[in-house]
Design a protein that fits this description.
The protein is of the alpha+beta class. It has 2 domains: about 270 residues, Butyryl-CoA Dehydrogenase, subunit A, domain 2, CATH 2.40.110.10; about 180 residues, Butyryl-CoA Dehydrogenase, subunit A, domain 3 (Up-down Bundle), CATH 1.20.140.10. The protein contains 17 helices and 14 strands. The strands form 4 sheets. The protein has a 6-stranded mixed sheet, with no helix packed on it. It has a 4-stranded mixed sheet with strand order 5-8-9-12. Strand 1 and strand 2 form a beta hairpin. Helix 5 runs antiparallel to helix 6, helix 9 runs antiparallel to helix 10 and helix 9 runs parallel beside helix 11. It is globular.
């Protein structure tokens, strides 16, 4: 059953422990650092709950991201739902509720991965999927370890006690993108662990308001925004990132997915379709984001009157080619879908294309941003400090006179340029460039994994066939 945006916002008023700038945040729905983004996420829920998009977003009473796809058409339908939510934030909200929803559906497709000799997490993984889907919950995750460099493994989440009803954990995890806005958070690891490192080989999901759970927020771009006119993206779509700290947190056994098993703790991401589902959602969002950025480029050149210059049309053509590349990866991953567990777990997006997409996106995004910056030139530097300059009775007419463009009022031109700066050059924009490079892992990891995706043998075979087709002969 879906919930409304109002119901989602109400769920956030649960006493969760969030810290920012040395202050404990009492209510993320009303705090200046979080309230607008919380409202943007609530809007996503309203789109699903009761709007013209409900039929696209909801299937059999749950969000389509929670469904286990059985056919290529199911993947297409799920991607169509992803696209609706991605367009609502212009691609700038990455870890929306449909992201981990796809991961949970991946767990449900292959629950046997969670069954080990010492612990059976399969029923817990299925219950996790059902709980999220039925409750229309927002799950975030923290699956990276803090880096100390001194071998201090006490920094990383680990079990410090076992009880009849569950375990007690202590330590920290990173990076909790969107976690302050979530209902639950998965705490685990996607990083390789040594075979003997069973102390850190665990994964569990708990409510964000669990006692002893603390979230330390990074700088809030929303809090620093002057307003929607001056910072149209960072004021509304700052999904935030936070450090998760566990101080003797009690986790009931039924919320533990893997326990003291290195293989299962990795396999839950890589042997189930969970990671491939992540990429499917992210690739759809990335395609949408490039569409948006390219639209900014087109509007910038049209406003400047440079849109018909050959060099400019070529640059816009290059950006449109990038959009087509991003789209092609999504469609190709769907078209090359693979059976899961011999078909018993439905289908998943093609692994080879999905792995390649994360390489492409991390390399393409900075190029797209640079291309648009070149088109914008110095226009995005010399801007009024805020909308107050335009509204001032004496200064407003001066700004309006000197910052207009042919056929465009100063207000409309400044509005566009401020949008461009927020997307391309602000601190918020810098975070997004870094995010697109690294949110699916370090590039060297992705590049290495690409060699395992199945394409290398075919490439080698074709080259060897050419070599085998001729010989060294005298006189030739």
């Amino acid at each position: 059953m879906t919930r409304s945006g109002r119901e989602y916002l109400e769920s956030l008023r649960d006493g969760r422990e969030v810290w920012l700038d040395g202050e404990r945040v009492k209510d993320v729905t009303s705090h200046a650092a979080f309230r607008n983004t919380a409202g943007s996420i609530a809007h996503l829920y309203d789109l699903a709950h009761d709007s013209e998009h409900s039929g696209t977003l909801i299937f059999d009473g749950i969000h389509r991201a929670y469904t286990v796809p059985r056919t290529q058409q199911d993947l297409i339908d799920r991607r169509t739902a992803y696209k609706v939510w991605a367009e609502a934030s212009y691609g700038f909200l990455g870890r929306t509720p449909d992201y981990m929803a796809g991961g949970a559906a991946g767990f449900a497709a292959m629950p046997q991965v969670f069954t080990t000799d010492g612990f059976d997490g399969a029923p817990h993984a299925l219950a996790y999927h059902r709980r999220l889907a039925d409750g229309d919950l927002y799950s975030a995750f923290t699956i990276s370890n803090p880096h100390s460099g001194d071998g201090d493994d006490d920094l990383v989440v680990r079990v410090v006690a076992e009880r009849d009803g569950g375990i007690v954990v202590r330590g920290a995890k990173m990076i909790g993108t969107g976690a302050v806005f979530a209902d639950e958070v998965i705490v685990g690891t996607i990083e390789p662990l040594a075979p003997e490192d069973v102390d850190h080989a665990l994964c569990f999901s708990i409510p964000v308001d669990t006692a002893g759970l603390t979230f330390v927020s990074r700088t809030s771009y929303e809090a620093n925004a002057r307003g929607v006119f001056d910072n149209p993206l960072s004021s509304r779509f700052d999904e935030n990132d936070s450090l998760l700290v566990c101080e003797d947190v009690f986790v009931p056994w039924e919320r533990v997915l893997t326990y003291r098993n290195v293989e299962a703790t990795a396999a839950m991401w890589w042997q189930t379709p969970a990671y491939l589902n992540f990429v499917h959602q992210a690739a759809t969002r990335f395609w949408t984001k490039l569409e948006f950025l390219t639209g900014i480029a087109i509007l910038l050149t049209r406003t400047a009157g440079t849109d018909r210059l050959p060099a400019v049309t070529q640059s816009v053509g290059r950006l449109l080619g990038m959009v087509a590349q991003a789209k092609a990866f999504v469609l190709a991953a769907e078209a090359s879908c693979e059976p899961v567990d011999g078909g018993r777990g439905g289908v998943a997006p093609g692994r080879e294309i999905s792995f390649a997409q994360r390489i492409m996106a991390g390399e393409l995004y900075p190029r797209a941003v640079q291309e648009i910056k070149q088109l914008a030139g110095s226009s995005i530097i010399q801007l009024p400090a805020s909308a107050e300059d335009l509204l001032h009775p004496e200064l407003g007419p001066v700004v309006s006179k000197y910052l207009k463009a042919p056929g465009t009022t100063a207000e409309d031109r400044i509005k566009l340029l401020k949008l461009a700066w927020d997307a391309l050059g602000s601190e918020f924009a810098g975070r997004h460039e870094q995010y697109e490079r690294f949110y699916h892992g370090a590039p060297h990891v992705g590049l290495t994994m690409q060699t395992w995706a199945g394409g290398a043998a075919g490439c080698e075979r074709l080259a060897q066939a050419c070599l085998d087709g001729y010989e060294l002969r005298a006189g030739r």
